[in-house]
Write a structure and sequence with these properties.
Blueprint lengths: L1 H17 L9 E7 L10 E7 L3 H5 L12 H14 L5 H11 L2 H7 L4 H10 L4 E5 L2 H5 L5 E7 L2 E11 L2 E6 L3 E6 H7 L4 E5 L22 H7 L8 H10 L2 E6 L11 E6 L7
GO molecular function: ATP binding; peptidase activity
GO cellular component, one term: membrane
Pfam family, one: Peptidase_C39
Length: 277
């Protein structure tokens, strides 16, 4: 009787501990793969936890997304202040500051913020800033994020220039997220070659707008043009062979006068085609 009781207690202990389910992290998924393809047993399976994030989260990494169609200026300024200068502001706080220290009546009239409004607000919170006009080399030689106005898709828009690398300009767009332009394309849309710079102490600077590998996942126009009409998965010859295997074979007389088997019985493949009504 004692042995049965002891055995039951041991079974309960091991079962309760083995079945103890630990909480899974929010962004974790588990995948299982066969560690050795020559062995199909479960013991050869490899199970690992990986962390995944929504693509949209990475698309707007380090960016304050604009809340209104006219608020690209306040969102871009908040992105630069938080991501580089090291502040911790919301777009609403920045908008209120721009309205308070900027040209209020003109802001209401044009339903947008100007670089002068930005300069006044930035000065009010204790930082030096200024708008300048320069060449493309001046922009990339700054080695820091700056706000640039662009004229894109028929609209005037503010974005944050992040970096230049290998002929591409990487920007933080408060409407579209982390995107990039070909160098020549950026020069075309850069409005009046204007840039807005904020000076921040070295010990306070943030690196949220630093270029990362994920930013460089773009498809160049040349690549799209090269592969747009290419049968990427299977060639037509291969798909025809697959269709022949799934079709019905039948004997017919070859009616092609140019064929070496003219007027002789040959094997053909009869395929079924479905027509939409």
């Amino acid at each position: 009787m004692l042995e049965i009781t002891l055995g039951s207690a041991l079974m309960y202990y091991f079962a309760s501990h083995e079945l103890d389910v630990k909480p899974k992290p929010k962004d974790a998924i588990y995948y299982t793969e066969l560690a050795d393809s020559r062995e199909q047993s479960f013991g050869r399976n490899h199970r690992e936890m990986v962390h995944v994030k929504p693509a949209l989260e990475n698309q707007f990494r380090g960016i304050v997304r604009q809340a209104y169609d006219y608020s690209c200026g306040s969102a871009a300024l908040t992105t630069l202040l938080n991501g580089y200068v090291g502040t911790n502001l919301t777009e609403q706080q920045t908008m209120e500051g721009l309205l308070r220290f900027g040209e209020y009546n003109r802001i209401i009239e044009r339903r947008s913020f100007s670089l002068l409004d930005m300069k006044r607000f930035v000065a009010a919170i204790g930082y030096e800033s200024g708008g300048f006009k320069g060449e493309f080399t001046d922009l990339i030689n700054q080695n820091q994020p700056v706000i640039v106005p662009i004229s894109y898709a028929g609209f005037k828009h503010f974005v944050v220039f992040k970096a230049y690398k290998d002929g591409r300009v990487y920007v933080a767009d408060p409407a579209l997220g982390n995107i990039s332009f070909d160098q020549e394309r950026f020069k075309q849309i850069w409005e009046n070659n204007t840039l807005f710079i904020i000076n921040a102490p070295k010990n306070q600077q943030n690196n949220m707008l630093a270029l990362q590998d994920a930013d460089m996942r773009h498809v160049e126009d040349a690549t799209i043009n090269r592969y747009a009409l290419v049968e990427a998965q299977y060639s037509a010859d291969y798909t025809n062979k697959l269709a022949d295997k799934a079709s019905t074979m039948r004997k017919v007389i070859d009616q092609s006068t140019t064929s070496p088997t003219y007027n002789q019985p040959i094997t053909t493949y009869m395929r079924l085609y479905y027509k939409r009504k």
